[in-house]
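quick one
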Amino acid sequence: MMSSVRVEPLPDVRALIGEGPLWEESEQTLLFVDIMGKKIHRWSSASNQIASLDTGAPVGFAVAARGGGYVAGVGRSFSSVDWSTGAVTSLVTVDDDKPQNRLNDGKVDPTGRLFAGTMGLEQSPGQVQMKRGALFSLDSKLKLQKLLDQVSISNGLDWSSDGRSFFYVDSLEKSVDVFDYDVNTGNIENRRVLYRLQPAEGLPDGLTLDSDGNIWVSCYDGGRVLQLHPETGALLQTVSLPVSKTTSCCFGGRDYSDLFVTSASLGLSQSELSAQPLAGATFRVSGLGVKGRPPVEFSGTVLK
Ligand code: BGC
Ligand code: CA
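structure w/ calcium ion:
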């Protein structure tokens, strides 16, 4: 199986911090962000071209909304994004008492609620003021709820298909955690550690579940993606990438059998950059013999 695995970069974009990949089935496109490049990119599998939109401030994630448009985490704002006009409009802000914070990773739960978290000011990559961030949810009425406090770098998140488990990463805890989830209320409880990363695996970052329920977690400074068992936390396989700062991943492509992996170049020295000419690229990994699940759209209306 592993011998047929192929890793190839998508063209053109070398992001500062590539993140938040999201497959858009209707257009067969891959959406992803460059957090510090302040851009949302959209790669078309049909034309192999990338189109980009400026967000004007660091952008942690972008997800599709049911009535059209996207919701993106821009600075400390959940903002609507109209791709056709390029308009980015703040809907709700978070962490108003911590002006240096910014939104980081976000994703939509099985019922259409949006979850996203924040982090404090990053002095240099991976160096943040500890426990300044939080985790929030936003419902279809744009009502905000704070679910967790004291988060250092709010990162990867996803839910089991039955909606009963919520998987979550605070990168500086160096573990992948799991909570019991209540899809009706959106509450999380009973946090426990599912997998603790080895030093060589770096920091846990973005994650996604496949259609068998296994977890794929990107390892920042680990140059790899790990596949984990959702109940035992057993390490099932490791996929190596030709860059060290692998940041996030999602399944997509025809029948969701490709794994797309984003990466960062920010924080690499000149010599590291010359040793990793593909740093900042987004990669397509094919031949894993695994499929993903379609992403869920945010249930709120964000465009007029
Ligand atoms: C953040 C980066 C951070 C990295 C390491 C990413 O999700 O956006 O700013 O350095 O995680 O944990
Ligand atoms: Ca991330």
